[in-house]
Write a structure and sequence with these properties.
230 residues; alpha+beta; Alpha-Beta Plaits; two-stranded antiparallel sheet; flat; disordered C terminus; ribonucleoprotein; Large ribosomal subunit protein uL23c
């Protein structure tokens, strides 16, 4: 009995529901002002989709295709450490400044972001110097000389911050206190000398043997061994 009474609604409940349903529209009509249905919120769109304005629904324009954003392929080659830095690395496991070799198109921001995101290092600053590739001569079969030029490259001096909780390494590396500024000033001349050497005028390039021949000598000009043709 209890289960049947709980499953089937009573007649009083059905009557009350039907009365409310029939009185609803009438009450709304006699109530005065009708409430307008709220407009649905606009659909969420990604900013990068860039849908064209004024076109909605089925005929909405597709977003303009863009080239994918690719991270550059960095090549950071750590240069050989001097004996002083090797000794400091064995003692503390941290270095204040390290030199790297990379390609010329890599920027300072990319070098710092790469070291921080990939290796978790805290970079303070990056100084870079561009180098031109050396001109070399190779000799092939028969003693024929081939002159070629190596690729240009960039040297990056990266200055790191000490790990958290190990700030004493910075004081030990720089001397601490007033000596720290002196240590920084001692490190700066090295970079300044490198920059001055890079800006210095280069010595004139050595002329190739066949370029030193004057027009009248054997093998010069269009006349062959007899000299320039008239």
């Amino acid at each position: 009995m209890h289960s049947l009474a709980g499953a089937a609604p009573s007649s009083e409940t059905r009557a009350t529901t039907s009365d409310n349903a029939s009185a609803g529209p009438a009450a709304t009509a006699t109530g005065g002002t009708e409430t307008e249905p709220e407009e649905p919120p606009p659909p969420l769109r990604f900013v990068s989709s860039e849908w064209r304005a004024g076109r909605e629904g089925r005929h909405a324009a597709l977003p303009a295709r863009r080239l994918p954003i690719c991270f550059p392929t960095l090549t950071l080659q750590m240069l050989k450490l001097p004996p002083e830095q090797l000794e400091q690395l064995r003692e503390t496991g941290w270095l204040r400044e390290v030199a790297f070799r990379t390609t010329p198109e890599v920027t300072k921001l990319e070098i710092a972001a790469y070291l921080e995101s990939v290796y978790g290092m805290s970079v303070e600053r990056v100084n870079t110097i561009n180098y031109l590739g050396r001109v070399r001569t190779a000799y092939g079969a028969g003693g024929k000389a081939y002159v070629y030029r190596e690729d240009d490259w960039k040297k990056a001096y990266v200055t790191f911050r000490p790990p958290p909780g190990m700030e004493h390494l910075l004081e030990a590396a720089t001397g601490g206190g007033a000596a720290a500024e002196g240590r920084e000033q001692q490190q700066r001349p090295l970079l300044e000398r490198i920059r001055e050497a890079a800006r210095a005028p280069r010595s004139p390039r050595r002329r190739l043997p066949w370029a030193n021949k004057r027009p009248g000598q054997a093998g010069a000009g269009d006349g062959g061994p007899g000299g320039a043709s008239e």
